[in-house]
Amino acid sequence: MKICVLGLDCAAPEIAFGDDRLRNFRRLMQRGTWGLLESVIPPITVPAWMCLSTSQDPGSLGVYGFRNRINYTYSGLGIVDSSSIQAPAVWDYLGQKGKCSIVVGVPPGFPPRNINGISIGCFLTPDAATNEFTHPAEIKKEITALVGEYPVDVPGFRTDNKDWLKQQIFEMSRKQWKVVRYLLTEKVWDYFHFVDIGLDRVHHGFWDCYDKRHIHYQRGNHYENVIPEYYLWLDEQIGRVLEILDKDTVILVVSDHGAQRLDGGFAVNEWLIKEGLLVLNEFPKEPTPFAKLKVNWAKTKVWSEGGYYARVFFNVEDREPRGIIPASQYESFRDEMKQRLGALTDDKGRPLNSLVFKPQEIYRNVRNVAPDLIVHFGRLYWRSIGSVGHGRFHLKENDTGPDACNHAQFGMFILAAPNSPLHGEHTGAHLLDVMPTLLDLAGYEIPGTMQGRSLVAAAK
Ligand SMILES: [Zn+2]
After folding, report:
1. How many angstroms is it from 50 CA to the middle of ligand 1?
2. What is the number of other CB atoms lying within 10 angstroms of the CB of residue 239?
3. How far, in Å, from the CA of 107 to the mean position of ligand 1?
4. What is the number of structural domains in the chain?
5. Which of 65, 214, 227, 380 lies at a C-alpha separation of 20 to 30 Å from 86?
6. Do 432 and 355 belong together in one domain?
7. Claim to verify: residue 396 and residue 426 sit in the same structural domain
8. Could you tell me if residue 216 is left (phi over 0), alpha (psi between -120 and 50 degrees) or otherwise beta?
9. Rounded to the nearest whole angstrom, what is the distance from the C-alpha of residue 113 to the centroid of ligand 1?
């Protein structure tokens, strides 16, 4: 049986399941099963889509976010690309069986993956006009003939120019879904996987206009309906795809994580400085990115990277070039830091209820250079601010440009297949369960490398 995965990056279950106007979402829900889908830690686009496609956790992939330490020096972080993922994905497994896949915009998807079938680069493609972003290369010509220049993302989406942003997102997504319909209809495939990144951009751009509990929400604002409008439009797109698919297809609508409001940012490095754990030769006069700070490494024990979550690193003897934490004290120091980070409070002195993780406790394997601790400040209602020079710990604005939401640990899924025994609401599904479930329904064996379980097998 064929498998068609329509990925909606960042789709929030409360909207996808809560808006009665989404007729095609409803139709699929009635035909199959649906529910919350617990994402990986951290619930971030990279690595989440590849965790889904390989059924392996971030530690096993050795990819902990968009940017990762490439070694134990202080040289900063490297950006992930498609070659960073070495584990076999579903299209590799199916390719070995002579089956064809079409993979569109599944991050990290640049350089385009060499698969048995067609792959189209994701939003990490530097410039679709000048780069090879398709495999095979000649597909690019067909795409250009169909939609003109193919947009992989909205460059500069962290902007206050909301009218422009809305128009750009819709224009991008219109072209992408047109390409999706073309590939579904005109090309051979056994496995199809598209990721709509427009929804993620809509959330990050407009969540504060939509969510009444957001600190910046203003009743009756001009952009209040942009998010529901985009879902309605997506519903139409899904309806058009459903018309194309034949009955013998496993259909999955799925998100890599959800979305939630941002209450603020926690300037983690400012706090580490105050605690004497991070020492600078010179305190900056204005907000300065961590990479540009003059760090006194001989006196520094801990530093952190910012982003939707904090990656906290320790300066360990014989591991980092100028490490000062004795290896023998590493675990006790890590326990102490876990406790201290977990005990931080918000701007009003209330507990942030942050979650602090040791990679070794949450992953089956810990490959490459993992953070020593991963922190979800305020359960991701707060983001991590890596820059220094704010003069306070709690900020209301993001340091890398306007951003209206953070990611939520739970995304959503709707799964329909003619032979599926699963109906109605399903609880307890995890992102890593997706691929074993799809393979099971489509009649394939589940590779032993996959870490999730088939929801179908579990239901029997
Ligand atoms: Zn995402």
Report:
1. 11
2. 15
3. 9
4. 2
5. 380
6. no
7. no
8. alpha
9. 19
Main-chain dihedrals φ then ψ at residue 173, nearest 5 degrees: -65, -35
Asked if 354 and 380 touch (Cβ cutoff 8 Å), the reply is no
Tokens of 264: 């603020």
Residue 191 CB partners (closer than 8 Å, separation 6+)? 2, 3, 5, 90, 91, 94, 99, 100, 101, 102, 117
Q: What CATH number has the domain bearing residue 6? A: 3.40.720.10
Residue 284 domain boundaries: 264-402
Q: 98 alpha carbon to ligand 1 midpoint, in Å?
A: 30
Instruction: Provide the pLDDT confidence category of residue 157 given band limits of 50, 70 and 90.
Output: confident
pLDDT in tens, 7-60: 999 999 999 999 999 999 999 999 999 999 999 999 999 999 999 999 999 999
Ligand 1 mean position to 382 CA, how many Å? 17
Beta bridge partners of 357: 374
Return the percentage of the chain with pLDDT > 70, whole number: 100
pTM: 0.96
Under 8 Å between Cβ of 287 and 388: yes
Which of 371, 159, 406, 389 is CA-nearest to residue 265?
406
Q: How far is the CA of 408 from the centre of ligand 1 (A)?
A: 10
- Please report, as a single letter, which amino acid is at residue 72: Y
Instruction: Say if residue 376 is in the same domain as residue 413.
Output: no
